[in-house]
Amino acid sequence: MLRTIREFWNDQRGIAMILVAIMLPVLVGFALVTIDMSRATGLHNDLQKGVDALALAAAAELDGRSDSITRANRAVTNLLANRTLFSTAGDHQLALADVTVTYLTGIPASDNTRLSAAGVDSNGVNWASTDPKAVSFAEVTVNPSGLTDGAGAFATIFPASFNGGSDTMDIDPQAVAGFTQSICETVPIFMCNPFETATPATSKTIQQAFASGDTYSREFRILKVDSNPGPGNFGLIDNNLTSVRDAIAMGTAGTCYQRDKLTTKTGVTLGQVNAGLNVRFDIYSSSLSKYNKDWNYRPASNVRKGADKTSNCNKFTAATDGSAMGLPAGTNYNSSTGMSDPISAQSFWSTYWSINHNGAAYPSIPSASYPTGDTTHPASRYDVYKYEISHSLVGDKSPSPSKESGTPSCFKGDTPTADPDRRLLNMAIVDCIANQSKINGHIQLKPDGYASIFVNSPVQKQDNTKSDEDSTAAEKPISLEIVDVDGPLGNGTLDKALRNEAQLYR
Question: pLDDT per residue over 130-172, tens digit each?
Fold first, then answer.
């Protein structure tokens, strides 16, 4: 008997079957877990692509306008209307109820700082906001569990419930996208907001001032200072250009600036600024004379400026004998704000029109550029300038000895066109009082906005015997009008210079 038991104990035949029988459930379990993880990874990837697209669609609408969140929600809803397979149950569609969309004013500096679906990070900082003008990021999170079609929670093949676990797995991918806006086709100059005051309650943004008609037909004069600029001043933007002069002459900095991040620049001689601007008036300083055939350095199609008989292709002197007259200066100029009163009556133009158009009576030009479309106001300088072009009056000559017309004669290239208008420039507007420390410290700052400005006249030296680029003579101010602004309160002419971009951050 003992011998039989001993032989059975030592007999190893068929032991493999026993081991297989023991290990088979384990092997099958591992296989099921592997399949479940593969399914989970695939579903997570699909959902991640979906929320990435949703976040980008929402962020692309966050341009700071009052309806930005409304438009962002509409973009999400429209994108979700595309029927996309995310699971094998239900109608296979990711619905609005399956995701949480939160709008943020910013995001944590470190990607390791987790954001909840409500926009609160792991340090307890709440980045969420419902202010459409303040938000610039869109966060989209797939809701874990309870989805209408099980998009983020699916049944596992592995029966985890046998061990007290769950037979479903939650997947909650998240994406955060941000909105950035760049502006191209702009000169590397910023102008201090003339409507800013030391008391925020009495200040106006440049958009508010434009929409209310406060900018219309005023002459603005801006002068360069390197420290403590305020209304009536301008400064330069750092863009790593080798020649600020050429950037201004051509009308583009050769790069796009992020709309809400500008860094100021000091130490550039003002001769570069006025030499670049004066190209638009058919005036080529000695260093720019070689470009008088280059289309990039062309003048405007109307360069009437009130030049006397001694002016030439590289020097401008204003006539004082009544034989020519440029666009007239504003009345009651206020140096503390850098602007004059608006033009108060059509009679403002009588002398200008008589001198430059053969003694004719002024034709009461309508106010075509008034922000609200009201054409009953006295015409602005820009309105008169455009009227001369549209009514073929540019070639009219003023009396002797100047005999000036508005037709360019120094530029030797192809005849300049009226569109695009070379006397219009896109320029940043900065709240210089509020940002004084940033301007002086070369720190990135957010401009108040951007304006399309019309240059009224060439820039001169205080001592006009000096050449345009001579830094030993002080500059006279740049004279200009504001004809449009960016944003919803403007007329939209700056939209072509703006580039809207949305990008994923998380």
Answer: 888 778 888 888 777 544 444 455 566 656 555 555 556 666 7
Please, which residues bridge with residue 170 across strands? Answer: 153
Residue type, 186: T
Sequence-ordered list of residues with C-beta below 8 angstroms from that of 98, at least 6 positions apart, any chain: 142, 143, 147, 148, 149, 151, 152
Dig out the tokens for 161 from the structure: 């419930």
Q: Find where tokens 């190209």 sit.
A: 279
- C-alpha–C-alpha distance, residues 124 and 423, integer Å: 52
Run of H or E including 237: strand 233-237
Domain span at 115: 15-181
Number of domains in the chain: 1
Asked if residues 315 and 309 have their Cβ atoms less than 8 Å apart, the reply is: no
How far is it, in rounded angstroms, from Cα 430 to Cα 235?
A: 10
Instruction: Please indicate, yes or no, whether the overall pTM of this predicted structure exceeds 0.85.
Output: no
Q: Is 112 helix (H, G, I), strand (E, B) or coil?
A: coil
Q: How many Å apart are CA 189 and CA 353, to the nearest integer?
A: 32
| Residue of 393, 372, 369, 373 whose CA lies nearest to 453 | 369
One-character DSSP codes across 353-399: HHHHTTTPPP-----TT-TT----SPPPHHHHHHHHHHTT-TT--PP
CA distance 136 to 69: 10
CA dist 18 and 12 (Å) reads 11
Q: Give the integer Cα–Cα distance in Å for 439 and 266.
A: 9
Which residues contact residue 150 at a Cβ distance below 8 angstroms, ignoring those fewer than 6 apart? 87, 89, 90
